[in-house]
Design goal:
It contains six helices and five strands; from the N terminus they run βαβααβαββαα. By secondary structure, the protein is an alpha/beta fold. The protein has a single domain (8-166), classed as Rossmann fold, CATH 3.40.50.2000. The chain has a five-stranded parallel beta sheet, sandwiched between helices. β1, α1 and β2 form a beta-alpha-beta unit. The radius of gyration is 15 Å and the shape is globular.
């Protein structure tokens, strides 16, 4: 992390259930804009999320370090405690960031932001759809098809939320 510009955002693009993952191209757009503004970005996540995270990195077209699958829980907590913010889906890193006092911008689709560690230190972004939330943990298929709850949250909304914590 010594070579990562500050402020830096930890980005956790993974989630246990694919239905809870924001689109890789949307994560990539946010990363691209953050890096272009001089902000550092570090990808984080657990073992098994490398392929999805690598796709995000490739689409971003920026050389950002990845710690995906390379940290244990205490090390991840340490990384998150140094970050200015975390960007992620409804997933473990969001809750861990909250536990260490790092604001999280979390994208919720099939699940509800008030389930888990509430109140969230940061911002929960959701699409205002009548079908969302539709699941307790996000494990089922989208009943309407297309996962609109995850597609309607835009990179610009996410950037606006992150700016609250990065560029005060």
């Amino acid at each position: 992390l010594r070579d990562v510009p500050t402020p830096f955002v930890a980005v956790a693009p993974g989630a246990k259930w694919p239905t809870k993952r924001w689109r890789p191209e949307a994560f990539a757009k946010v990363i691209e804009k953050l890096v272009d503004r001089g902000c550092g970005v570090v990808l984080v996540g657990e073992e098994g999320e490398e392929e999805f995270s690598d796709e995000v990195r490739r689409l971003a077209g920026r050389d950002v370090p990845s710690l995906v699958g390379k940290t244990d829980l205490p090390t991840l907590a340490g990384v998150l405690s140094l970050a200015s913010a975390l960007l992620g889906n409804d997933s473990g890193p969001v809750h861990l960031a909250n536990a260490v006092g790092t604001p999280a911008v979390a994208i919720f689709g099939p699940t509800h932001p008030k389930l888990g560690f509430y109140p969230l230190e940061g911002r929960a972004l959701t699409a205002d759809l009548p079908c969302s939330p539709c699941s307790l943990h996000g494990e089922g298929p989208c009943r309407r098809g297309g996962r609109m709850c995850m597609h309607e949250v835009t990179p610009d909304e996410v950037l606006g939320a992150l700016e609250e914590f990065l560029f005060k």
